[in-house]
Design brief:
207 residues, alpha+beta, 2 domains, 4-stranded antiparallel β-sheet, 8 strands, flat
Length: 207
């Protein structure tokens, strides 16, 4: 006779606890996330999106510190009309959502490249006046074996290589450098690819 009421009461208490716990976590969620974002001392990007299927086939570099410019660059990357607008509800363009109050995005379009499936951040350093981000292309070689006359050698096609690197936000100047080796076992040589101005009140500055 009394089992059903007991179960209802227990269920009500459990649901009440879960809801109240969720509300407490939601209330402090932004503080928790903020505390978890590391400084540049980690020397790496927080998140890396990289591949060889970009619609942008020419070499270019961007620093994104706000959502509007991020949407525009993502639309270019996907080969879509560049409107700077998207629906947060449906997100049909598959835009990764970034908290630009705490983060920024370094976008690297490396042009068409063969046997290079990805990019990665090798090093990040911060001084009083600027942040330096160093990236490399991750390539591979193919052993075709001994050459034989008439043997067909398949060469991988050149594909549009890109990388999006999510990092802790900084309004300082940012210097982007690419590393390359002149020979196997040689140390990396660093070449400056782009220098971005500090973020300021002028529209587009430091973006």
């Amino acid at each position: 006779m009394f089992r059903a009421p007991v179960i209802s009461v227990v269920t009500f208490l459990v649901v009440g606890f879960v809801v109240s716990h969720y509300l407490v976590v939601s209330h402090y969620a932004d503080r928790i996330v903020s505390a978890q974002i590391p400084a540049f001392s980690t020397g790496r990007a927080l998140v890396t999106l990289t591949g060889t299927d970009s619609a942008v086939k020419t070499q270019s570099y961007r620093l994104l510190r706000d959502e509007k410019h991020w949407v525009q660059v993502w639309q270019q990357h996907k080969g879509l009309p560049v409107t700077g607008k998207y629906s947060r509800t449906h997100n049909s363009i598959g835009l990764p959502v970034i908290d630009f109050e705490r983060c920024m995005v370094v976008a690297v379009f490396a042009g068409e490249s063969a046997q290079t499936p990805s990019l990665s951040v090798q090093e990040v350093s911060e001084s009083e006046g600027e942040v330096v981000v160093r990236f490399v292309k991750n390539g591979y070689s193919i052993d075709h074996g001994r050459y034989e006359p008439g043997k067909e050698i398949r060469v991988p096609p050149a594909l549009p290589l890109y990388g999006f690197f999510v990092m802790p936000r900084s309004d300082k100047a940012l210097v982007l450098e690419e590393g390359s080796r002149k020979g196997r076992g040689k140390p990396l040589d660093w070449t400056e690819r782009q220098r971005f101005a500090p973020f300021g009140p002028n529209p587009g500055q430091g973006r």
